[in-house]
Design brief:
CATH superfamily of the largest domain: 3-Deoxy-D-manno-octulosonic-acid transferase, N-terminal domain
Radius of gyration: 22 Å
Helix content: 40-55%
CATH topology of the largest domain: Rossmann fold
Number of strands: 14
Strand order of the largest sheet: 3-2-1-4-5-6-7
Largest sheet: 7 strands, parallel
Distance between the termini: 32 Å
Length: 414
Amino acid sequence: MIRPLYSLVLIGAQPLLRRKLRRRGAAEPGYLEHVEERFGRYEAPTAPGRLWIHAVSLGETRAAAILVDALRRAQPGLRILLTHGTATGRAEGQRLLREGDAQAWLPWDTPPAVRRFLDHFRPAAGILMETEVWPNLAAQCHARGIPLALANARLSEKSLSQARRLAGLSRPAYGALRAVWAQTQNDARRLAEAGATVQGVFGNLKFDASPDPALLAQGRDWRSTAPHPVVMFASSREGEEAQFLQAIAAHRDVQWLLVPRHPQRFDEVAALAAQAGFTVSRRSTWDGAPVPAQVWIGDSLGEMSLYYALADAALLGGSFAPLGGQNLIEAAACGCPVVMGPHTFNFSEAAQLAQQAGAAQRAASMQEGVRAAVELVRDRQARARAVEASEAFAAAHRGAADKTARAVLKLLAG
């Protein structure tokens, strides 16, 4: 009874969704493209039988890229349908497309839109990345016999509590999944409690990402010419930058690098740093080398490996406000030690393991985190140990991509 009510609420909210898309599109034009796809209306003709992979945003799309590479190594002719929910995810996903592939927005989770989506694309199977389980989507795939799986799956305690409160919706949705492949044992336990059938614990796909060697080399070259140690605030979130800028005011002998999580905020964050009294230089204006300034702004996409290589240490965005933290795996793979804030519930096990391995340390506040990062980059021996620990931590947890690819191909084979 609860799913029909949920569907009515979503149908009624469609004008609000259109308004939200127009508002988001003012900052990110990608949200204004192919708007009718959000409602299950697709114009381009398409062939059935693709493997459908849903990667809602940028992080999930990067994880999907690792899986797609592994799948194509095992089955080179595989055709992919890639769907997204955010403009940054869709832009990143374009790089993964090959001849015969397709890309679209996943529709709003109303029964008519989901029906139109499935009727149009007729996928052979569906893979949802990490957390994206929608009640109507799961129910209709189950009813049509389309195998649907959750890959690189994670579920925090907070999300499990929310699932319990909405058990009438969430439990049937998780139960409709043909398979779930969890990142960790704790994720597997929580997903099972939510009603999912967990068929494996494969680890995190992001450990299998290989940083771009050219970006690493460029970043390390720039770091070697920097007059001061470089500390990066990686994937900062709204509300955190002001704390960061206040905390660094007393540390003028460090080169600060600020990389916002969301590209639509690049201008805002650069203005915030200038208003705080810092000289600012933006990556987008550099011609061959960083331009001297007290705060560098990393305002580019696809260059996180460069930024981590440029930094001697990094503060973890999303962890100094109650946002759950960003993923620290890419930092570890690039040999960049991390200082985390108190809030890492989205990646609790990875954060704990990194801390145990010596690849990361915990700070109770932004002020404490900045002090810890400054102390680390000033102590060459301590930083060298942390770099070694970071690289070893990243190497020790690889292997999820091949395991997941084998499971996906088995699902496709029936």
